[in-house]
Amino acid sequence: xxxxxxxxxxxxxxxxxxxxxxxxxxxxxxxxxxxxxxxxxxxxxxxxxxxxxxxxxxxxxxxxxxxxxxxxxxxxxxxxxxxxxxxxxxxxxxxxxxxxxxxxxxxxxxxxxxxxxxxxxxxxxxxxxxxxxxxxxxxxxxxxxxxxxxxxxxxxxxxxxxxxxxxxxxxxxxxxxxxxxxxxxxxxxxxxxxxxxxxxxxxxxxxxxxxxxxxxxxxxxxxxx
Length: 225
Description:
alpha/beta; Rossmann fold; 11 helices
């Protein structure tokens, strides 16, 4: 049976994944999740492929365990191949491995940390409903207000919020939404503006695009060392 959402997760994140599925279903958004929805005595792989093909959105519960899961990677590959939107629900401050980054860099991201994860589930429900083109049936609770990565990084470093936002925009032209995570992380580690821009340029594989990025950020206001 077709479901609105396919929930992908690594086994150690099972509790969060099932809580997430339950929250979606409480808002009249149908979810498919293994092993609950695997038909007894059926071919496991075949059912997963069919479920991904019948879903409208994939929600990926992402943590360090995800990077080590070949099964999750296969599910993501299949979803991207079919043009399925993938909403990454990141429950830990971990970036995807290079193999997963290829598939996830242009997808939707939602951070769900620091814990507890519960307050972020309402935001997830609203985001999924938006991707499905409808409102969730039940009224969500008060939305969670989080600082965007650039604001959070600016608060903890000497770099200005405006410059970090500009870096995000420039980097996103080359690597997609993953830029917001990489800028926040690089800003927390870089000692000065030159080191920050070089760290970010290193995330761009193509030499020509890397130089284009460095030229673009030269016009930004540089914070004092």
